[in-house]
Each structure stands twice: as structure tokens, then as C-alpha cells.
Amino acid sequence: MLYREAGQFKTSYAADQQVFPIRQDRIGVVALLVIAFVGIPLFASEYWFSAILIPFLIFALAALGLNVLTGYAGQLSLGSAAFMAVGAYAAYNFQLRVEGIPFLVSFALAGLTAAGVGILFGLPSLRIKGFYLAVATLAAQFFIVWCLTKFPWLSNNSSSGVISTQKLILFGRELNTPVEKYLLVLSIVVVMAMAAKNMVRSSTGRAWMAVRDMDVAASVIGIKLMPTKLLAFAVSSFYCGVAGALYAFAYLGSVEPDGFSLEMSFRILFMIIIGGVGSIMGSFLGAAFILLLPIFLDVALPFIANLLGLPFASATVSHIQITVFGALIMFFLIVEPHGLARLWQIAKEKLRLWPFPH
Amino acid sequence: MNFFFEVLIGGLLSGVMYALVALGFVMIYKASGVFNFAQGAMVYLAALSVVGFIEKGAPLWLAIILAFAVMTAFGIATEKFVLRKLVNQPPIALFMATIGLAFFIEGIAPMVFGSEPRALELGIVDEPIPYILERWNIVISKFDLVAAGVAAVLVATLALFFQYTRIGRALRAVADDHQAALSIGIPLQHIWAIVWGVAGFVALVAGLMWGARNGVQFALTFTALKALPVLILGGFTSVPGAIVGGLIIGASEKLAEIYIPPVMQDWFGGNFGGIEGWFPYVLALLFLLVRPEGLFGEKHIDRV
Questions:
Q1: This prediction's pTM
Q2: Residue A173 DSSP SS3
Q3: Chain A nearest-CA residue for B97
Q4: Which end of chain A has a smaller Cβ tally under 10 Å, C or N?
Q5: Which residues lie closer than 8 Å to B163 by C-beta, 6 or more apart?
Q6: CB pairs < 8 Å spanning A and B
């Protein structure tokens, strides 16, 4: 009853083409943004900002990037963490080597650098497809991390490639509290998520989806495969690169190349599987789920063990975590291959009829 | 020059070890079109269960049989509870499910059998063969040679099994066309269960060899990462491809590790060791640009 678009008539093309065509959606999004920008900073504790909210937003951004590539353009990539690493190290080097460069500019340049590297590793996608391509993206994962470890120039000659990021200064103001960092990350993520939302419903996004569904058919109807695929790689890597820069500057403060491991790439991949492949909102839902699950298990498992009177070792917790992770991935793929985003869709369909069944 | 040959032969032999793992991938991909990322985890599970049973007091031969039973049961369970439910899903979904499966195994196997690294004694010593050492002054490990022999026997057995048995024929039929195989009365799910059993067996052999060589530890799961470039080089669907790919990757990787870092050091300064991690991938990638379906892979024709 509450969620029904009946009576909302579109009288202009602009109104018909807006991002959120249903009024309730618009109200919901605005409410969400108000909560995120005003409500949360008022109430959340420091722990929440630095351990949950900031990494959630950053990983959501990375998942968004991977979703553009895998979910929309259909090119499976196992190297997203490496592109995050490129972003982090590029931002660090721009700050280090360019006098007085504003932070936002260096983040954008970091994203562009990652996009360039992404295009380079996307080139094979023109020749090879499917699993062959997925394995080929592993080349990016291993090669980039190796380069960052071995070329001392990239990490300003620090041992084993560890970098400590410079202080975040925005408009002459140093951001050092978690709240400020959170607001910075949130603003960037909101802007980029809106951009992605718009991109995937433009002709570019439709071209991506056509390539995903069948690239031969797409090229027959006149979509140029090369620019389309490479653009997907570039955009995806740009998002991952910015996420990586934020990961280094706003979250950890000090990163090493080995931190951007294959495992992290997999984690980002799981986010989009569980959240929903080919859905902007799914990236956020998946990131929240994957980040909160370990925290939840950390708390819940000792509690359950206590309840049952079982002996408990902390090594077991990590094993159970991995097992549950794996089981959940399989469970989701079997039960709901379209992820949490699809559940939300179903809920919306139900809400349309509620409380009257017809 | 002796040194060159020593590195080359060492590389070829370690390539055989990669091929052992890659074979498991090929088996499953051929028969069911599933790219089984969990193969590395299965190698780990197999080695771990052998060691686990030995610790419980079983002799080696019994432990191996029990481990084989575990792998078969596990393969059948995977087929029944995961893959059967994912029929008609896109291949990418199946692939991701096997990543989930890999995590599942990596979590549950150490919980059952313990996670601390252990040695696995097969009774083959890892020492140079005296005759070759004296004659040509080349160090070739006895163990590596045995591993190569085992791989050769395994490949021959699999080839005969595929070629001449009733089940093997059915497997090939399923690999060619699921629906056509079903229509002439081949029980598809039966066949898949068998394939997973065979892949479990291959994983067991690989697990024994790798476990005896490097110890039974979590790092065994990374053997999958070593096998992937072998696969894309050789082609996903080809048993000989896995072997040839393994040899090429093994040899070039070891040669590159010896000869490339000094050159890079001359150019850039600093230490450039450890290129083994990515070199096979880049090599396979460059190779794919020339032959997108790998050395022996089936040429894929797209139809709209």
C-alpha cells in the first residue's frame, strides 16, 4: 500500500527518465543519505567509524568497480585487489612527488592510473574469453603486487614496499578524526555510486550488457567490442583504484603490497556474488554482508561454544569462519543466484500488493 | 652448460608435479564443463586425510585407501548437494560455487585432521641420483624422477580408461554433448559422480606427491594457482595439454627465475627474485594472445 507507483504520472521525458522513477524510492534514497550524512555522525562511536563504516564504504566502492566489469560487462576478473593497490600507491606517489597537489586531484589521478593499468590488462579480453580470461587476470594480480614489492621507487625506497600515507588535508584542514574521514569517504562513494548508476543505464551500460549476454550478437548489431570492453576495464579499475587510495589513506594509513592479496580479490568477488551480480545496490549489500559476517562470527561462536560447554580455540574460529564463508557462497548461488539485491526486488514486489493480496 | 641442463631438467620435473594437479582440473572440465577451482583444496584435503589416518595408527596403504574413500565420498557429495542444484546456471556461477567449495574444504579439513604442518613419508628419499651426478655432474632428485614416473603412469591409465572402458566411452560422450548423451541413455548424474571420484583420485595422487615433497600444510592449496597457467597454456579440455603445458611452464619458470633477475638487476638495481609467482601467468597470457584456446584446446566457434 505504501510502496505503489499508482497515480504517479510522468508528463515530461525528463521525468520519465529520472534515476529513481518512483516517488517512494526518491524519498527512501534521500532519507538514507540524510541518515548517512547527519544521523550516523551524531550517534556512531569511534569504533564503528574506523572498524566498520569506513571499510564498508571502501569495499562497497571496490565491489561497485568489479560489478561494472563482471556484472555488467560480463568479464570475470580475479585481480581487483591489485588495481586497488595501483590506486593506493599512485595516490601516495602523487602526494609525494608533486608539490602541493590537492588530495582529491591525487585520488582522481590515482584512479586514472589504475584505469590505465586496467586497460593494459584488459587488452587480452579482446582475444580470450570466459575462464581463460579469468585466469589471465590473475597475471595482473600477481604481477602488480610483485612490481610494487620489487621496485623501490614506487614505495619511496621503503623496505618490502610498505608505505605510510601522508596526512589527509582537505581545503587546508587536516582530517584526523574518524568522523571526518568517514564523511570524506562517504561523499566520494555517493558521487561515484550515482555516476555508476547513471552509467549503467546509459547507452554505454546497455552496450556492456549486450556484450555480457553474447558478445558475437552484440558485435553483429553494431557494438564495437574493443572500446566497449576496454571502457569497462577502465571504469572498473578507476573505481577500484580510488577505493584503493581511500583504503590506504582513510582506512589503514599504512599499507604493504602483500596486503592486496588474491584473497582480497576473492573477497570483493564474493561481495558481488552475495550482493547481486549486475546491481549497484547489490555491491553495497554484499560489502556489508561480507564485512559483518566475520565480526558476527567472532562474537557469536565463543558464545555458542560456551552455551554448549565445548572447549574453544581461536584457531578453530578462523577455520569455522572460512567454512561458513564457503558454505554461504554455495548456498547463495543455489538458493538465490541473483543475490541480496534480488531479495530486495522480491520484497518490493510483495510490498506493492501488501496488505491486500490482489 | 651443466648448470643450464640441471635447471632445465629440474624445471621439467617440477612441471610434471604441476601437471598432476592440472589433470584433475581437466578431468572435471572435460566431463561436466565445470571449472573446478577447488582442485587445489582437494589436493590439500587428500594429503591431510592420509596424514590424519596415519596419525590415528593406520599403515600407509590403509591410510591411502581410506583417503581415497574420503575423496570419493566427498566428490559424490559435491555433485549431489552443490552441482546438481546448479544445473542450467551459467558456467561462471558454477565456477564461483567451486571457489566457495574451496573455502569450505580449506576450513573444514584442518578442523577434522588438524592444521599444523606435518611431514608425509612415502619411503622415497629426496636425494640426487649418484650415477647421473658422477657421469654428467647434474643433480637430479630421485624423488622428482619417481614423481614423474607416477604422473606418466597416471596419464597412461587415464588415457586407457577413457579410451577403452565402457565408463570411459560414456564420459567422452557426456563431454561432447550432455543432451545427446542423455538421449541415448547414459545416466548423466552417475557419470558426474564418477568424474568427481576420478578427480578425487587424481587429487589424492597429487596430494601424496606434493605432501611428501613439501610437507602437508595449508600451502598445498596454492598448488591450484600453479596449475592454472598450465591449464590455460595446454587448453582446458586436453589431457596431453596438461602434461605438455606443465613441462613448458615448469621449465621456463625455473629458467626465468635463474636468468631474468640478474638482467633486471643490471637495468634497475635492487633485488628481483621471486618472479616465479607471476611469470607462468604472463607467459601463458602471451601465449593465449596467439592461440586463444591453448595448445590443445578445442577451437570454440561462436554462433549467434
A1: 0.88
A2: strand
A3: A330
A4: C
A5: none
A6: 134
